Amino acid sequence: MFKIQTLNNISVAGLERLPRDSYEIASEIARPDAILVRSAKMHDMVIPETVQAIGRAGAGTNNVPVAEMTKRGVVVFNAPGANANAVKELVIAGMLICARNIAQAWQFARGLSGDDAAINQAVESGKKNFGGFELPGRTLGVVGLGAIGVKVANAARALGMRVVGYDPTITVHRAWQLDRDVQQALSIDDLLSRSDFVTVHVPLTSDTKHMINAERIRTLPKGAVLLNFSREGIVDDDAVITALDQKHLYAYCCDFPTNLLKDHPRVVTLPHLGASTAEAEDNCAVMVADQIRDYLENGNVSNSVNFPEISLPRSGGHRLAIVNSNVPNMVGQISTDLANAGLNIIDMLNRSRGDVAVTLIDVDKACSAETLGQIRAIGGILSVRYLGG
Prior knowledge:
The chain is of the alpha/beta class. It is built from 13 helices and 16 strands. The protein is elongated, with a radius of gyration of 26 Å. The model has no long low-confidence stretch (mean pLDDT 96).
């Protein structure tokens, strides 16, 4: 019986992927094998030594101590792309809200008073203050062409916009999904100089903090619109306010309200709604639940932020899943211990990522506790699990 601890309310659609005859799931549970989390901050938590995997039902893992878990041989999963459509729709909505001054016009309409005749008169005289512009023919710059960025780019093309994209690490899979008319920018600065709208879809790291700063904002054409539905801190808010006050930026729309931003007349702040749809929550929960189950039962890894991708079909033998430091002769030492125990390797797969390697081995007979102990004693071994036959 596997034990799963939930740190937040996880969608039932995801929990149902874990059969109750082999999984015990609770928010309070002793010695869990895995943890499912959404937004709970885990950095100050005491994470039990029994934990083998953490599944973040979302894309970002800033709330998970990934480096510490890697040293312990604990895999951390996320759900890239599961909330991509939800964020894409919000970005498109943000462009329309800014281009048509919808938030400001709505506030104006809510503040009207008097009888209907007076309101009608005020509407006719006031609407000229909220005239906007249309999206077709405008250029959208998309920084980051992962699951979300690609969907945003393709949706903008469908709306008749020109699209420029920048992502030096775009995968072949994402490139195939991208509309063929999306143009490639040579750099972020090149993208900004060509864009009427800019949306960022990158993780927050030391390299991306204040990626959009005062200097780069000055390279935007006058009257550009900036959108940030990625992470707070990627855009320098002080620089944005200065550019808005100087009328260099037309508008800013983001998912991260602050005292600096929330009351500015040319800023629209939303309460972190990017993935706040029932569909996105279901998709994220299903994805991480499936990943957790496949790892606990088979040792396979997909969509991990700290482990290599690895998948070995079951061959009918008895499986060992081993996590170790990525140093020479690990597989040789493991194989030697198995041979000394009279175990024949039926199938084996080894993959590495940075300082971590994962080895899946199917052997012809059950592996004894003594043999598992010998493998665990090898220098550099982080975890050893016997998954049965």
